[in-house]
Amino acid sequence: MNMKKFAALLLGALMVLTLAACGAASSSAAGAASGAAVTDEPQTTEEAAALYAKLMDQENALFSENTDLWEKVYLQANKGMAMVEDGKNYGDFLLDTIETAKSEFSAEELEVLTKAAGEIRDIENQLTALEEKFPDCQQAYMNGGASVSPEEGSLQKFPAFEGKDLDGNTVNSDDLFSANAVTVVNFWFTACKPCVGELGDLDALNRELAEKGGALIGINTTTLNGDEASIAEAKEVLAKKGASYQNVYFDASGAAGTFIQNIFAYPTTYVVDRNGNIVGDPIMGAITEKNQAEALQKLIDQALAADAG
Amino acid sequence: MDNKNSCRASLLLARFRGWVQAGAALLTNLHLPNFFRGRLYQGAGKAVCVPGLNCYSCPAASGACPIGAFQAVVGSSKFRFSYYITGTLILLGVLLGRFICGFLCPFGWFQELLHKLPTKKLSTRRLRPLTYLKYAVLLVMVVLLPALAVNEVGMGDPFFCKYLCPQGVLEGAIPLSLTNAGIRAALGTLFTRKLGILLAVAVLSVVFYRPFCKWLCPLGAFYALLNRVSLFQMQVDPNKCISCGKCAKACQMDVDITKTPNHTECIRCGMCVRACPTHAVAFRYGFGNGRQNTTETTMED
Q: I want to staple B156 with a disulfide (CB 3.0 to 4.6 A). Which of A88, A243, A285, B75 is the partner?
């Protein structure tokens, strides 16, 4: 009897230790991977994510070295002198922007910017290769590193999509985001009670945003791929709740579809700026909660301020 | 002949129960790396119900909790009842009954491990009326409220998951909020209240044996109703039984196996099997009534 008790205790302790050991082992593995990141080929998604993180850090460091100069570059980009084309290297985009706006900078500044943009192009190439090999590494990096620098704005892009709204009008993410100072993107599904519960609040928020040059869109995950029955249900619920803002769907197989696979808390709400970059951390849970609504408003204000300035 | 074999098998099963519980807990939560990633497994396995009370939102969970899934379906605007889940539960109940509680349920195991802490233990025998509470939990929180207390779109809340279930806090809210900042930001009073319930259950588990299983668990209640017709039964051999009462004393679920081998509270843990000095108590699997032999003796008496 005592023996059994002892064995059980031992087993319990062992389980806890194994878990702890697991944690330590995987984190140290990740640490080692990031240490040797640039030279070693990553083998697992974790290693790839670590390498991804390292590259992103390098890129962010380049941006933060000359924040003022880059702000000027972004300003030029905002004027639409060069647009980000889908799938185009971000470094190339920066180089183009700098090239078209070179009259704005001194020779010295130009040299600094061009050199940095070139480095960014190389980093972006590595990142793209990494993403091709490990499709999940970006998400893994986001999960691991999202809390590290939400303020600094690591310029994480909202995945591009091309789809339709529930009335059948074509919607393109680039056009959508660039047309609005801020776009609030709400992920929901029809059978989710808290999601449906906040539809009214979201509609009010959309009307409020419209006055400030922003917009709110919904993405109902059950309507992906244009499932007729789901669209009809979603429209019915939206009508019942008096929500008139745009709801869009797209192919589940695209980048945005993959993005959705990694959302597991519903509703989840993202704030996206005019350049298609995600602002801050997503809000998980309904904004009917006061502190959640406040957190969302803060992100919106942040995006609006950045757009105005 | 057969009897002796079943005796030995019963003893072995009862003795290695802890290992079976550990294995079952691991199998129901296979995706361990998700604990560190702070995300959920969302693959095809989640369309299947696990036998025990194991939160869908545990990062490692391999399947869905039948109680949670049932509420999600009856609470949706499209359905009033879930035949798939009810059928699964009836099948599991008939095949195994509360053997699932004793051997396969991770939350039962959690309470048992806590009970092994060396403190003074209290009997729940006098608290017997509380065992009926779990049927009310099943009927009201799992079936009626989710289906009937609906909003304007016809959707109900999963009342048991939302307001009572401590397993959800232990396996879902705590590990997710530890690794995921977004989830952490979403925690509110509901979480605090349920954390209180979890802590209360944990503390009670140290002094009482499986308080949640006895008094509150709706899944245990469902299996209890099917314990009587389950293929997995207890059997007492009247020819070997010397009526010493050791089995009843050993039973932590307050059952006298010699009188009621198919009792709703019996979780087939086999403590009576191990306690019996004459090996008169054994597990039995198959059709027929385990009590037949006993009735014969009472008639002889």
A: B75
